């Protein structure tokens, strides 16, 4: 497992983040090379550049970027490829939310996801001062839920509706019924 370098995203990074997220969730490469794909469930954009920019600039919210080896920010002439990202949002004094987790599909199943998740948890604990991390996972994604459970997350029993209006606005369509795409909320004490 190789070492990763992390940094917080800047608004200028949003155009590079969007294709990574799209490829990991709904791109053609996610179908053939990745295991975290939603491409069999949904079509359309997972998120657009404006949505990513909003996540980067929102209060108590960060987007974490991961690179192999040393990396400098774009304004410092960095040229290394982005291989993973995630968002961490402070929701309360004790709780952070983990989302928009994407690893380049051609590099999945090599330990990168574990490293990114661990870094995000440490960031939430040390920088945001929270004691718990939560996330929402599409309930039919049993293998993904199992992956998080092996990393200490547990099913809270809380369920949420899939944001159908948001998906439709992005040109998306469900390849199964929208009602099958509800969220399971997972959490972990940090």
Written overview of the protein:
Pfam families: Acetyltransf_1. One of its GO terms (molecular function) is acyltransferase activity, transferring groups other than amino-acyl groups. Residues 4-190 form the N-acetyltransferase domain. This is Acyl-CoA N-acyltransferase. It comes from Cladorrhinum samala. By secondary structure, this protein is of the alpha+beta class. The chain has a domain at 4-135: Aminopeptidase (3-Layer(aba) Sandwich), CATH 3.40.630.30. 29% of the residues lie in helices and 29% in strands. It has 6 helices and 9 strands, in the order βααβαβββαβαβαββ. The protein has helices at residues 14-25, 28-32, 49-57, 112-126, 142-150, 164-169, and strands at residues 4-8, 42-43, 61-68, 82-90, 95-103, 132-138, 154-160, 173-174, 183-189. The strands form 2 sheets. Strands 1-3-4-5-6-9-7 form a 7-stranded mixed β-sheet. A two-stranded antiparallel ribbon has the order 2-8. A hairpin with a 4-residue loop joins strand 4 and strand 5 (95-103). Helix 1 crosses helix 3 (49-57). It is globular. It starts with a strand and ends with a strand. Residues 72-79 have low confidence and may be disordered.
